[in-house]
Amino acid sequence: MASWLEQLQRELAGRGLAVASIPGKGRGLIATRTFFPGDVILNQEPYASTPNKILVGSSCDHCFTSGNLRKCSMCQVTWYCSTNCQKEEWKLHQLECRAMAALTEDRKKMLTPTIRLMVRLVLKRKLQNEKVIPSSSIDNYNLVDALESHIWKVDENHLVLYAQMANLVSLILPLIELDLKEIAHTFSKFACNAHTICDPELRPLGTGLYPVISIINHSCVPNAVLIFDGRTAYVRALQPIGKNEEVSISYIETAAVTKKRHNDLKQYFFTCSCPRCVKGSEEDALLEGFRCKNQTCDGFLLPDSGKKAYTCQKCSVSRDEEEIQKMRSEILQLSDKASSFLSSGNKAEAGSVYKTIEQLEQNLYHAFSTTLLHTCETLLKIYMELQDWRTALAYCRLTVPVYERVYPPFHPMIGLQFYTCGKLEWLLECTEDALKSLTRATDILKVTHGTKSQFMKELFGKLEEARAEVSFRISSRHGHDE
Question: Is the separation of the CB atoms in 49 and 197 below 8 Å?
Fold first, then answer.
């Protein structure tokens, strides 16, 4: 009988893929045929998954939708949107339900998503071993077992935490004989292999373990993207991927300087050496750098080792370090004030303070600075919540050029931002602008999200509506001219 790895390789071969040893990286996934932008490279259901908010019923435990949820009457923990979803989960949930129903209310409060993910993983493994539920070449515990844990690199505090979590799992599942050391190792695997399940607009819904997708390595300039439809994970090509080329996705937010990206990657226990990280310095100077004092210059500043100043790399005009630090200090104080207003729910005052911060940052930072970008994103969110659509649109438009600078051309963040612009423009009856934005959104998101999801169907509907309205207005104008 073929080994699990041979079975996996056969399955992947049918999809134009292969697991290979990548120099300096370990395992990776390579293409054995050409993939074009928008092609589904790989899709997988999770070996185990759980919503983020367990006790409050944020989404269905099976399909991760958020409507018409009903709580399991026995365990009072699990939520389903329909009888069908409950039936699909029943063989697994039957065991989980009994275990959780026996917990005290205090113990139920200790059911974090990570603990629940482990409980479900243990139960699924048991049911697959007993042939109660089927396994397959891309859905079996051997794939989980083969994941890297990096346990020897984990600090003592985390080792203690994993041991405590393993003990808690044993208390939840007292009738199952568990290897606590193995459970602790698996928690370490979660830390560097589990994926955040997001909705189509990239808002976190839950956590899932996708052991085949976990084979795909990271790049800060990925050639593929991971998108979810419900809890099904899809890896789609962002650009042409040739035969024998490695498939890569991004594990982290890539709109950041090299130092920040490398810091975010520490949990995965490697240092990225992709072309973007190797090149580094000039892009970093733009993303975190200060702007030239000369208002007509679009250059960026770098520290001048010969004096306490920053010098423009384009026109050589310098800015005094003391002046820069004074402005940064003022921005920091205002940021604390704005955060306080946000925490208290005073969005109008928070928006006013953030606008002042934005003005200061425009004088201090380069136009492509991620600091300025995050301020604009915050203002967009505030004015969306205040339903000040015109101001929200202004900030949405400000973010787009920066997104286009920091992300690859076909990136969901760019597409989603154009979609937001389009919806706001439509609301404000800027119909022709809405059509342009929705067209751009569609061109990008049909590559990253495909064309079949409900989310994309709604986008296509809005695009057709905008086209029809623009066509009607043009024909009406021609009629008046005649």
Answer: yes
CA distances from 311 to 287, 308, 403 (A): 16, 10, 26
The string of pLDDT tens digits covering residues 231-243 is 999 999 999 999 9
CA distances (Å), 391 to each of 237, 338, 382, 386, 387, in order? 35, 18, 10, 10, 9
In a domain, 302, yes or no: no
- Cβ of 131: how many Cβ atoms within 10 Å? 8
On whether the CB atoms of residues 51 and 58 are closer than 8 A, the answer is: yes
- The vertex-42 CA angle with 200 and 21, nearest 5°, equals 130
User: In which domain, by residue range, is 345 found?
Assistant: 318-406
Per the domain annotation, does 279 fall within a domain? Answer: no
- One domain, residues 354 and 384: yes
Same structural domain for residues 52 and 180? yes
Reported as half-sphere exposure (CB side, CA atoms, 13 A), residue 411 has a value of: 20
**With the C-alpha atoms ordered 319, 320, 322, 326, is the resulting torsion angle positive or negative?**
negative
436 contacts 420 by C-beta, under 8 angstroms? no
Q: How many domains does the chain have?
A: 4
Find tokens 């937010």 and name the residue. 253
| pLDDT per residue as tens digits for the range 124-147 | 999 999 999 999 999 999 999 999
Q: Is the domain of 103 the same as that of 66?
A: yes
Specify if 111 maps to a domain: yes
Task: Please indicate, yes or no, whether residues 183 and 221 belong to a single structural domain of this protein.
Answer: no
Label residue 387 left, alpha or beta by phi (over 0 means left) and psi (-120 to 50 means alpha).
Answer: left
Q: What is the pLDDT of residues 370-411, one digit of tens each?
A: 999 999 999 999 999 999 999 999 999 999 999 998 898 999
Same domain flag for 52 and 18: no
Whether 290 maps to a domain, the answer reads no
Using alpha carbons, select from 136, 189, 195, 141 the residue that is nearest to residue 8: 136
